[in-house]
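**Protein fold record**
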Amino acid sequence: MGDGELAPGVALKAVAGACRGGLDGARELAAEGVRVQAPGGVFSVRWDARGSATALGQLAFFAEYLEATGLFEGWLKSCPLSYTSPNAPELVDVLGTWMLSILDGHWRYAHVGALRGDGVAPSILGMNKIIGDDSLRRALSAIAPAPEAKHNDVQRLAQQAQVARSTRWMQDQLKHSIAQATLEPWILDCDTTIKPLYGKQDGAVVSYNPHKPGRPSHAIHTYWIGNLRLVLDAQLEPGNRHSPVHSRPGLMALLQGLPQAQRPKLVRGDCAYGSEGEMSALEDIDQPYLFKLRQSAGVKKLVQRQWRRRDWCNLGQGWDACEDDLLLTGWTRRRRVIVMRRVRKADLIVELKRPGRPKTKDTAQTELHFIDENEPVKSWEYAVLVCNTHYELHNIGQLYRDRADCENGFDEIKNQWGWGGYTTHDIERCALSARAVALIYNWWSWYVRLAHPKTRLEAITSRPKLLSAVGRMTSHAGQKKILLTLTHEAAHQIKGLVTNVRHGLRLIHDTAPQLTKSQRWIALVRYIVERILACAPRPNLGLVALGTG
């Protein structure tokens, strides 16, 4: 043996001794505490096994909002889950655990374990306990069961019927969460989110995946109220069903399910939606749309024809535009198109790869041409749009630029919520989870706008301000008390935001105490919308009354 090495027997004794020492230390810490030397001095530290505390102390205010509006209660009552086992968890514990996990920013079922020691949050929501991740998975499997090879025809039909019920349940809840928003002029934004997968899940297919090329994925087709960043529906499909043709039936059903007066003033999407199938389907129901076109050969020829025109219209922010009509191969009719362009003013480098030159990763072989701002060279950014509206060019340009806010919204729900998580082997529960995340996201979005109507606060900002706080619960003479401690620097602002929430709830209740909870929700949303309108500058489009804030 070399210097410093221990004989196997000695090593085992050392490990066993360390384990005994660790257990003794844990018992010491639990019983009496230990003295800890830190940069700030010496501290006595011990575990408080009898304490009832939560890191989500401000959940109490969000729970008051849920109770006043009946949102959580309605979700529970309409859930198509029925257990036969007497040992199964109660429904309130299942959905309460799920909601708390989503609210806390989790994206895996295993993260539920971080909530199991919370002694306050379950009590606030009327729960008995936070269930384990395995129990949650099993419960969701009962709500949206997967087909099994051993199923006979009767069982297969029963499984399909249950999945249909669970889908309708979540779609109805989503519709309820946004219904009042559609009474004001609004824009429907369409997008497809690619969800990379790392296992052998159903529907995990290698297809279009811009961020993880070659990685199997699911595709989530999302329909979105662009001006308020609310989700109307989320349709999860296998990875090779990412194109809009696979979501078209869902989109058309959504649009035709709305009263004419509540339909969007515009359906907006990227170049994936600028196809004959999508446009014809929307034209058949007289639905206005605005899509970006792919840079096909026919589109490039159009750009070349328009480039030398002298009647380009200034749209602001450096953009110019002109319009024409176009009939591309495969189209059934000529359509209005708008060519937009602007000069790119940043320092530019052009990278040239000459034909026949061998491909190499050696950057030294790359030919770079630096374009000085004084050189007689212009670099242009351009886009070609297609629409069936009569809006003026400057309005079209503004509508196109506003899609950038939509992209911010999609980015938030992808990266700050569990949109790409809660993955199981079966696609049924994955689809259920995508809609559940969307629903909780909608509830939270309305709550945040009630607290802060002037602008939206993304989850990365709103959770620390409106959900996080150290909450300690005590009980005396049958009365429960929660003592909150804020650690955020904006404690004064946070208290003002909570005051806004409670003022709104109290106003709705005092104005019409006879209202049902469902009616209170309608009245509260109208109140929130009025406050948003009061804080936002009036748009000049005559289209999007709620703005994009």
User: Anything to note?
Assistant: The two ends are 69 Å apart (CA to CA). Residues 539-549 have pLDDT under 50 and may be disordered. The domain at 184-355+364-415 is CATH 3.90.350.10 (Transposase Inhibitor Protein From Tn5; Chain A, domain 1).
